[in-house]
Amino acid sequence: MVMGITGTLGAGKGTVVDYLIKNKGFRHYSVREFISEEIRKKGLPVNRDNMVKVANELRRLHGPSYIVDCLYDQAKKEGSDSIIESIRTTGEIDSLRGKGAFILLSVDADPEVRYQRIIQRNSETDHITYETFLLNEQREMNGSDPGRQNLQACMKEADYHITNSGTVAELYLQVEDILGKIKEYE
Fold it and tell me: Residue 29 burial by CB count (10 A; 0-12/13-18/19+): exposed, middle or buried?
């Protein structure tokens, strides 16, 4: 099984991924890490602006689904259940759906809760004000080009939706519920 995960900034995508890795044996393929590696190759600082810029450049040069296609190919070679984190464009979804069995999860939560989470995780792209957080999200929320970020459209296309404004235990219960539904249809 190859899953993708999309959602808003700080919603808990990484927590879902960690759960699937540790408890269900999933392999993890990260769009963020793929792009970060490309940024480092260019000698640029890894920050959200460069993430968007380099990702859009790769998609423009190689096609809207280039990054996830590379990750999907790696996942298929491994041959185990896999999750690709973070799907951000409709072009990526179209390509992944065209490859066969693919399931897309979306994760969302209240903006203030999500901002507090990103401050706590303290990654290299998370040192921002609440206002910048909201502006970054707005920039990535809508777009008409299938090769550019459009979180809103991606979340609408998800097969399963998780609202993660509660506890981690509640999040895990939602993941288990979704996995149970997926197994019913296999």
Answer: buried
pLDDT of residue 186: 57
107/122 Cα distance (integer angstroms): 20
Structural domain boundaries of the chain? 2-173
* Residue 46, CA atoms < 13 Å, CB-side half-sphere: 14
For 139-170, what is each residue's pLDDT tens digit? Answer: 777 766 666 778 999 999 999 999 999 999 99
Q: Does domain 2-173 have CATH number 3.40.50.300?
A: yes
> What does pTM read for this prediction?
0.85
Six-digit token string for 72: 């999907």
Beta strands in 50-148 (DSSP E): 82-85, 102-108
